[in-house]
Write a structure and sequence with these properties.
This protein has 3 domains: 2-72 and 432-468, no CATH class; 91-154 and 353-421, no CATH class; 162-346, Flagellar hook protein FlgE (Tick-borne Encephalitis virus Glycoprotein, domain 1), CATH 2.60.98.20. The protein has 469 residues and is α+β, with helices and mostly antiparallel strands. Helix 1 (2-29) packs antiparallel against helix 5 (434-468). The strands form 8 sheets. Strands 5, 6, 9, 10, 12, 25, 26, 27, 28, 29, 30 and 31 form a 12-stranded antiparallel beta sheet that branches. Strands 13, 19, 20, 23 and 24 form a 5-stranded mixed beta sheet that branches. Strands 14-15-16-17-18 form a 5-stranded antiparallel beta sheet, with no helix packed on it. Strand 15 and strand 16 (229-236) form a beta hairpin. The longest helix is centred in the C-terminal third of the chain and has 35 residues, at 434-468. It is built from 5 helices and 33 strands. It has helices spanning 2-29, 182-185, 292-295, 389-392, 434-468, and strands spanning 39-50, 57-70, 77-79, 86-90, 93-97, 103-106, 112-117, 120-124, 130-134, 147-148, 151-152, 154-155, 162-170, 201-208, 214-223, 229-236, 252-260, 266-273, 299-304, 307-314, 317-319, 325-327, 333-335, 340-346, 352-356, 365-370, 375-381, 383-385, 393-397, 400-403, 410-412, 420-424, 426-428.
Length: 469
Amino acid sequence: MGVFGTIYTCYSGVCTATTGMKVVADNIANLNTTGFKRSRYEFANEIATAIQEVFVKEKGLGSMVKSIRTLYTQGGITTTDVPTDLAISGKGFFIVSDQNGNIFYTRDGQFFVNEVDENHFALQNSLDLYLLGADPAATTADLTSLRTYLIPKVMPPQGTSEVNLQVIFDSRKSLETTDDPLWQNYDATRETALEDGKYDFVWSLPIYDSLGEQRTLQLYADRTSNPNEYELLVALDDPSLDGRGQGPYQGAFLYGILTFGGNGDVTDARFWEITDPSSFDPNDPNTNPMDLTTLGRPQFTLNIQGNTQTITLDLGFQVEPDGSITRTSYASKLLANPFVQLYYNQNGYAQGIFDKIEVITEEGLIRAWYTNGQNIEVAKIFLADFTGYEDSLVKIGSNLFQAKEGVTPFIFAPGLYKRGRLISGALEGSNVDLATEFIDLIVLQRAFQSNVRAIVTADQTLEDFLNKT
């Protein structure tokens, strides 16, 4: 091969060492790049085979760059306390897309809430790429079903449809000497529809109407002339809001009688809905009590200024189809205690404006919180995985990968026992090991210097030969 061959061989060593240093330099430069996956240089030797000679001879022609491989090992996870910062622990890639629908994959979970139109927000990264997801209830997905999920700016109001209430009725109250029912004492044509002294206690029940405005129902309780029995009346605190019209029963919607057993539990319940503000008489044969064996719990249609909504009153018990009564953990009781409300809940709320995303679960479920204190599930994040990363993905910069032509990713829902799970409020760092990179850099430097020294030596030898000839 001679002197010229020596120069060529060492020149290839210089070239490969230079390429290796470029790879190491790129790794070191991205030491703090979120989700960065380091590259590894791989060299191979070059051989020339002489087949015209008596014996086949193989001669080394130096080295070449065989491959620059991306290593997809897990990077360290750092807490940020920003809920929309997401780290993947395990396998998988976030699936993002641009406005043209082009799909990209990334381990960089730096997302933020950004406005996409006048009615919605979405999660985007700094490249204006949208994080894709599916419906919150979805368990499987594919690339065709994933979408840019939208977070509504405004949550519409919801009128109350159920009131859950636990109250204690005072068993120490004396019985009425004469039957004086609440329904007869209620008269909305008076200044005070139900006057003091005509009932034993009243609870105020805040609810929301169908337009999202807070209203107040009054639950009146009064002893009857029968032992262990209380009567109830549900009415608006302002009878003038009743959209059914005027009359003595304007604002009154439900009347009932509860009977209690020896242990204080409800043993019998009868309820009547007051549908006509002009007249009501539960003793009229034509005014039948509601069928609680079908309904389970008493309910009534509330009419507020013409807007109607059906409300179920849950006092902690339910009448079964066979007439028996089952009780919840918040069952109302008759006890030797003052009147008291132990539990109250209603499912209505006012209109709410988007406030924040508080946390994203390990399973990728995203909840949006609103100023009315409510939250809704807006989407579920799905991740993509590939059979062989090196044969499936191409680095395109900006922490993004693209799938090679013909490659279809495996789409899965993250979770504790899945390929990967999500950690909200955290980011995955680079998988670059600085100590390893410095060692590689020193080795490459020595290789570069040695090859240059060999080239200089060969050059000097050639010069000496030419000078002597």
